Amino acid sequence: MTELPLYGKCVERPSSLALPVMGEFVPRSFAHKRVRECKIGSVTIGGGHPVAIQSMTLTDTRDAKATLEQIHRLEEAGCEIVRVAVPDDEAAAALYEIKKNMRVPLVADIHFHYKLALKAIDAGVDKIRINPGNLGGEGRAKVVTKAAIEAGIAMRVGVNSGSLEKDLIDKYEGPTPMGMVESALRHTRWLEDEGFTNIVVSLKASNVPRMIEAYTLFREQSDYPLHLGVTEAGPIFTGSIKSALGIGFLLQNGIGETMRVSLTADPVEEVKVAWEILKALGLRTKGVNLVACPSCGRCEVDLLDLCARVEKAVAKIDKPLHIAVMGCVVNGPGEAREADLAVVGGKGKGLLMKDGKVVATLPEDELIPALLREAELYDVSMRPSGKVRFVASA
Ligand code: SF4
Predict the structure, then answer these.
(1) Ligand 1 atom closest to residue 296's alpha carbon, by position in its atom list
(2) Which site from 48, 92, 294, 394 is most exposed, i.e. has the minimal number of CB atoms within 10 Å?
(3) Domains in the chain and their CATH numbers?
């Protein structure tokens, strides 16, 4: 997973924090560096570190074997932080086994039971996700905070529009972004009063404009790192669109240090979508960035099939390559100019291109094997300069 140099011209802004302004490009490198750091085991977010991808297991945490199998699949897909639900003592007890056998930081998701938080900390988790407001009072929250300080772990203050405190719903006449921000600030102050600042905050809502507004308002008032997410986003298709819009908008405006794409699907899909969001914004690189034309009446190849086969064939490539699949020689070569490698379909044959130049004309069934050979040989450090790159800042 290559991180490339920062990009963009920094624009000085009046505030100490970078605020998104509609229609104005806020260089991420500028905004992101001004956020505090939060250390979650081996992963640090904020302070200019890359946006970290996280997900949550769907398994019964009490079943350590099944949970670990899912965690290992998530790790393989590029998940950098994994959260598990800890609903009872048996689940808390399973955390020892789970933590011992995974690579990425482990987060325990706790609701209501402060003793479970203490047990999770004891089991060695790297972060707990709590809502200090539902731990049973300030006294219990203090006990958990003290244990977290001693263990050197992080805490996420997770505000959710669906479970906002009643006094804030009454005050703002509903679960508004302002109420969500006040809840988050209230809870971060509780933690600060105990001397705890290794904090990350989330302000999730299923309504995309509401979550954008909540995160944006919070960033105006606090420099704690933010965990982005659209909660209850839905199945893969709709959930990915909502997440790309909500999370993507915020990231493009320099807001957000870690993210979870919540989908009603295999959590590996969440990780894949998260990576595509980061790659599309040029914030991280991982493997191939595939672009393809949509096809049209000029196309003389089954482009949907060709593209699906290329996508499958390049899925395991780790190099941050930009590969294009185009449907015809009329516009294809020109549109593929920015790609490192491209295949351009034709009638029974096609072109293989490298750095915008045709390197071979091949029968259709030889295109993908030839593309894979070129991908293997391609040295990304020797890319011709001047090409518009799809990768940018960390
Ligand atoms: S590259 Fe060719 S086939 Fe693809 S959309 Fe453009 S004109 Fe149509």
Answers:
(1) 8
(2) 294
(3) 28-280 (3.20.20.20), 289-382 (3.30.413.10)
